[in-house]
Amino acid sequence: MIKLNDKGEGIFVISIIMEEVHTLDVPDLKEKLQNAIVNNSIKKLVLDLSNVKMITSSGIGIFLNINQSLNNQLKLASVNDEVKKVLELTKVTSVIDVFDSIDEALNSF
Length: 109
What we know:
By secondary structure, this protein is of the alpha/beta class. It has helices spanning about 25-40, 55-70, 80-90, 100-105, and strands at about 1-10, 10-15, 20, 45-50, 55, 75, 95-100.
């Protein structure tokens, strides 16, 4: 479901290994992400969404929650056009930065 990559100094990349993030998946995904943040003392996070092809509004709610808990140190990377459209329609892009690549997101910190 998720894959953790430690970049050092409290910066991590977490890849979401799911094609579709449905409402039923949200509680489990949220718990795994929150546990990873706490257990690894994550201060800055890039979420790699390259595998995610579809997401529901409740899935987007996870991103907003995590961004708040990380004091706005969440970046989204490798977002496909469909997911990007949903992020733009829900105004998430006005709160969380979205990047074409993981490297761009990491360099933005």
